[in-house]
Amino acid sequence: MRGILCCRPAAASPSSGPILSPPCSPCRGPRGVPPARSLSVVTGVESEVSQESPAKAVVRRRLILLRHAESSWSDRSLRDHDRPLSKAGRSDAITVSRKLQQMGWIPELILSSDATRTKETLHLMREHAACFLEAKVRYVPSFYSVAAMDGQTAEHLQKAVCEYSEDEILTVMCMGHNKGWEEAASMLAGASIELKTCNAALLEASGQSWNEAFASAGLGGWKLHGIVKPESV
């Protein structure tokens, strides 16, 4: 009968004892329908294929590039590194810190030049915006010198952020000087950005780590959310 494979027992020989039958091919029912056991195997395979790993959540990382507030030139005997803030600069630092706090751009880590005008800017911001007090602070002396070098600041900032920031930290603020800060902001955002004294560029990229964020965004791939300025617009 077509469609049915059967196994017939082999004839026994009176002299040689019982003869074992060879292994049988699986019997198939009418019209070639496979047995239930085969169906259960196929179902198991489909179940395994459908179990996929869930996609990782997007981690957004914020980078604030802040130029120090206006400095004073009243004492010409001071080195450039040691110049303090002017009266206007002190007021601007307070205003910008409050604006960043209101916008929710609150740094968890602050990397700053060790120049006097930059340290004074940070001191005033922490004094008048309570949220800044929770941030870790690290002074990076090289931020002062690298800002004067053509085309060096963006890469230097990347190395500093990746070195000093843990991946759990999602917002980092770097404080420094022109021309480097303006140049770095423009290179990262892929747009011409002007940073006057106490201006802050708000940049964002995605990545499971800071290394991944810099690698995936590259130069020109950081999203510019805006420039925070002390004066009202």
Automatic annotation (TrEMBL):
Gene3D superfamilies: Phosphoglycerate mutase-like (3.40.50.1240). Pfam families: His_Phos_1 (PF00300). InterPro entries: His_Pase_superF_clade-1, His_PPase_superfam. It comes from the Eukaryota. Substrate binds at residue 117. SUPFAM superfamilies: Phosphoglycerate mutase-like (SSF53254). SMART domains: PGAM. This is Uncharacterized protein. It comes from Spirodela intermedia (Intermediate duckweed).
